[in-house]
Design brief:
- Helix content is 78%, strand content 0%.
- The chain is mostly helical.
- α2 crosses α3 and α3 packs antiparallel against α6.
- The longest helix has 27 residues.
- The termini are far apart.
Length: 117
């Protein structure tokens, strides 16, 4: 179980997602002209993780054959079979679903916040 989780985190380069989170938070602060509500920050973070995970997973799926041929990338999870293609596709669909749901939640939350002038 732990090795499977490690394979998925490696596939999407989760450490890079964590590195990018401060930039998303800073963008939210600048867009709001101050600190946005906590629920807004939460849904921005969820949206970012979902979108980036889906995009990285889709990229790994698209590149799986080339990754298998390249000595630098042949040890990745998809070329090695540590993650099955169907599992990776499911992961991408769920990740984009999380992104779309969180974007919808952001829209709902923003409609309840009065517009600033």
């Amino acid at each position: 179980m732990l090795s499977t989780l490690r394979a998925y985190l490696e596939m999407i380069r989760f450490a890079h997602t964590v590195f990018a989170l401060p930039f998303a938070i800073m963008g939210a602060i600048l867009a709001a002209g101050g600190m946005p509500p906590g629920r807004t920050l939460w849904w921005i973070l969820v949206a970012m993780v979902g979108a980036r995970s889906g995009a990285m997973g889709a990229n790994r799926i698209a590149d799986r054959y080339l990754d298998g041929l390249n000595p630098r990338t042949r040890d990745r999870a998809l070329p090695q079979g540590r993650i099955a293609l169907g599992e990776a596709v499911t992961f991408v669909v769920v990740s984009f679903g999380v992104f779309l749901f969180s974007a919808w939640m952001l829209k709902l939350n923003s409609s309840s916040v009065p517009a600033s002038t």
